Amino acid sequence: MNRLWDLDMLRGLMLILMFVTHLPTRFSSMLSQPFGFVSAAEGFVMLSAFMAGMVYAGKGLRDGIPAMRNAFIARALKIYACHAALLLFLFSVMATVGLLRDQRALTDLLGFYLNNPLAGLWGGLLLIYNPPLLDILPLYIMFMLLSPLILEIGLRRGWQGIFAVSIALWVMAQTRISETLYDVFVILTDFQVPYRETGSFETYAWQFLWVLGLWMGAKMAKGELKDRKPFPKALIAVCLLYAAVMLIWRYVAGQVPIQGDSMINHLFDKWHLGPFRLLNFFAMVILIMHFGDAIKARLPRIGALETMGAASLPVFCAHLVVVLLVLSIYGGSTPERGIMVDVMLMAGGLAILYVVAVITLMIDKESNPKRRSGTPGSEGTGAAASGAGASGVKVTKPLAQVGGQVRGDH
Question: Which residue windows are transmembrane per the record (predicted)?
């Protein structure tokens, strides 16, 4: 079975966009949110969820729910190990370099840890304290741990109840409910990590994208996504218009829709997945699904993107290491820094990410010569096999034994 090269390319593109955004150069603001008021993070989270739903739902249908659950837990533990290693690298090597060089761009990022090292260390390992740049993997780990339950309910009982809860949580996230619940947690446990240090991503909001991706991936595993009805022409026209307006607005206004403290900005907020931002993302997803086959037929395959997308987890971790090193040596982006320095930092960083991907895939191939597909985001086998999406996966005895016949999605 072959890899889904188009999904690998998309993930590779998302990784590069995140790297460009995080690397402190003059290109960061220019290339961040290049398609409107939507960032690479939204695309990467939903793609990861889609891959997880497709691969693990297929495993559940073939081998049973317990096998699917164990695969999710094993993957979550692997991601946690990567996150813990990054935390220790940041708290030891990078913190030391930042202090010795008095590099404010890095020490400000570590402000809470430097003032409260013990609380910072344990809070980080417990996924509660999440310094800037290191707050995506904890989100991913929590979603991976919840995914077996979500997929099991979705496969056995349908998705209506799941989406009802998910949408309700997203609505709650647009208020201060998360902060209020955390305050109650602090009162009960006397935990020392402030709410502002728990990470930028609002978990109750971003879970909606994850659930949506899981649902689409599960439908792909069952062969149902290919059989969907075409989108109405009126919907495509509305999506084209909305996406075009958002794209123009983003490059006219900049990263923030309206300068100053405006309610409009909250409606586009990234961290809470504001409604207008979510609509922008949905418009793009619908357009990609509608024009996807035509684009794929004409799209040249870019090997570098495929390679990085196939090794997404190590490439993601490597991009954080590179960004932290640049912050410790060069600090934040400044107009005084020569443009050639920024160009070299960008080119050198991308080259490192590509080399990491190539080495990872080589190691994976040598250690698993017979493996051709695997779990989402794994070093050499992140994409699901195309056969599952094309022909579907039949319900087998193991699933029937744990919950009866699988019902169709609703």
Answer: 12-29, 35-58, 79-100, 120-146, 234-252, 272-292, 313-331, 343-363
pLDDT (0 to 100) of residue 378: 39
**How many Cα atoms occupy the beta-carbon half-sphere of 70 within 13 Å?**
6
Secondary structure (3-state) at 3: strand
Residue type, 347: A
**Three-state secondary-structure class, residue 119:** helix
- Tell which residue, 53, 226, 13, has the closest CA to residue 143: 53
pTM for the model: 0.85
pLDDT for the residue numbered 31:
82
Q: Say how far apart CA 220 and CA 347 lie, in whole Å.
A: 36
CA distances to 34, 307, 318 from 359, rounded to whole Å, are 30, 10, 12
Cα R_g (the chain), whole angstroms: 21
**105 token code pair:** 């761009």
Check: CB of residue 256 under 8 Å from CB of residue 265.
yes
Confidence of residue 370 (pLDDT cuts 50, 70, 90): low
Instruction: Classify 385 as helix, strand or coil.
Output: strand
For residue 91, what is the DSSP state?
A: I
- Residue 156 and residue 405 in contact, taking contact as beta carbons nearer than 8 Å: no
Q: Render 126-159 in DSSP notation, one character per residue.
A: TT----TTSSHHHHHHHHHHHHHHHHHHHHHH-S
What is the pLDDT, as a whole number, of residue 376?
A: 39
Which positions ≥6 away from 27 have C-beta within 8 Å? 20, 342, 346
Adjacent-strand bridge partners of 385? 3
Please name the amino acid found at residue 399. L
Of 38, 35, 407, the closest CA to residue 209 belongs to: 38
Residue with tokens 């993107």: 305
Distances (CA, A) of 72 to 14, 130, 240, 380: 23, 22, 37, 17
Q: Give the separation between CA 167 and CA 182, rounded to whole angstroms.
A: 20
Looking at 222-302, list the stretches that DSSP marks H as alpha helix, in order from N- to C-terminal side: 233-253, 263-267, 275-298
pLDDT at 388 exceeding the cut of 60: no
Q: Tens digit of pLDDT for each residue in 64-86?
A: 999 999 999 999 999 999 999 99
Return the pLDDT at 377. Answer: 40
Task: Write 235-241 long-range contacts (CB < 8 A, 24+).
Answer: 235/286, 236/286, 236/287, 236/290, 238/283, 239/282, 239/283, 239/284, 239/286, 239/287, 240/283, 240/287
Band (pLDDT 50/70/90 cuts) for residue 333 is confident
262's enclosing H/E stretch is none
